Amino acid sequence: MRLNYHLLDVFTNRQFGGNQLAVFPDPPRDLPATMMQQIAKELNLSETTFVFPPPDAAADYRLRIFTPAAELPMAGHPTVGTACLLARLGALGRIADAKTITFQEGIGPISVTVRADENGEPADVWMKQPIPQFLDIYEDRASIAAILSLTVADLHEGAPIQVLSSGLPFLFVVLNSLEAIQRIRLRLDKWAEQLAGAPAENIFVTTTETFCEDSTVHSRMFAPALGISEDPATGSASGPLGAYLLKYGLAQGSDMVSEQGFEMGRPSFIHIEARRHGDEFTHVAIGGRCAYVGCGTLVIA
């Protein structure tokens, strides 16, 4: 069995930045989930996607997303990158200005819009996300700080440590400075004591101090349970991040940019839209650009 795949870097406009992604655009319809998981582990990227025909007329494609350790119900950079690749391959037809498609993912239908440049080539891709849920607040700030090899003094005093989810839960931690976020050293022993098996095992850390003038926050994400020691760009957390920043007064405008991956040598820029009416959020989306890297064939004996 020969399976063709493509490699992209997502949330960047240049190769070797952003978050790596492998996309299998035409796998056999009966490809077992166990094989998809093995392939994702073999490629060992943050995520690998497999594109299938839609289960019904409500979607254009079915998208399955795997980390090296688990299948995800949804994810940001795999959704954005897969849509960009399909546009690049001509599967979406000619794009005059923008084209919206629907992926059926584990949490349900996800709307994605591909915007074209003046030559009709895919420029940037926007993913509309479910409205984030604000869930548990962690009162034991010292234990969470210890997981990151930090102290309570490094934590932003006015920002709660809270779980948010748009389909995949993350524990959000806000720090006082860029210097503090760069000092993070994840303690797997402390993580196993406090978060392994918890409703939110993934830790998303952010600060309003940034490297780039146009960025709103600087972020890092750690997901040991998913086989990801650190993620260079986390789209599924960035929609909830935008809602979090607005709710707690850490950002003023409804359009934001999260820079991520700098500590890994893979700078990423995730654009965020978060709109609300009163206290209720009405629209959350994330977007960015992709760089095509190459293609290959996996031969399954």
Description:
- The chain is α+β, with helices and mostly antiparallel strands.
- The chain has helices at residues 33-43, 76-88, 141-147, 178-182, 188-194, 235-247, and strands spanning 2-10, 19-24, 47-52, 61-66, 71-72, 98-105, 108-116, 122-128, 133-138, 161-165, 169-174, 202-207, 217-223, 228-231, 255-260, 268-277, 280-299.
- It has an 8-stranded mixed barrel with strand order 1-2-3-4-6-7-8-17.
- Strand 7 (108-116) and strand 8 (122-128) form a beta hairpin.
- Helix 3 packs antiparallel against helix 5 (188-194).
- It is globular and about 55 Å long.
- It starts with a strand and ends with a strand.
- The model has no long low-confidence stretch (mean pLDDT 97).
Order of helices and strands: EEHEEEHEEEEHEEHHEEEHEEE
Q: C-alpha Rg, in Å?
A: 19 Å
Largest sheet: 8 strands, mixed, barrel
Count of individual helical segments: 6
Give the integer mean of the pLDDT values.
97
Structural class by helix and strand composition: alpha+beta
DSSP strand count: 17
Write out key terms for the chains shown:
single chain; 301 residues; alpha+beta; eight-stranded mixed beta barrel; 19% helix; globular
Write the layout of secondary structure elements.
Blueprint: E1 2-10, E2 19-24, H1 33-43, E3 47-52, E4 61-66, E5 71-72, H2 76-88, E6 98-105, E7 108-116, E8 122-128, E9 133-138, H3 141-147, E10 161-165, E11 169-174, H4 178-182, H5 188-194, E12 202-207, E13 217-223, E14 228-231, H6 235-247, E15 255-260, E16 268-277, E17 280-299
Parallel strand pairs: 2-3, 4-6, 11-12, 13-15
Antiparallel strand pairs: 1-2, 1-17, 3-4, 4-5, 6-7, 7-8, 8-17, 9-10, 10-11, 12-13, 13-14, 15-16, 16-17
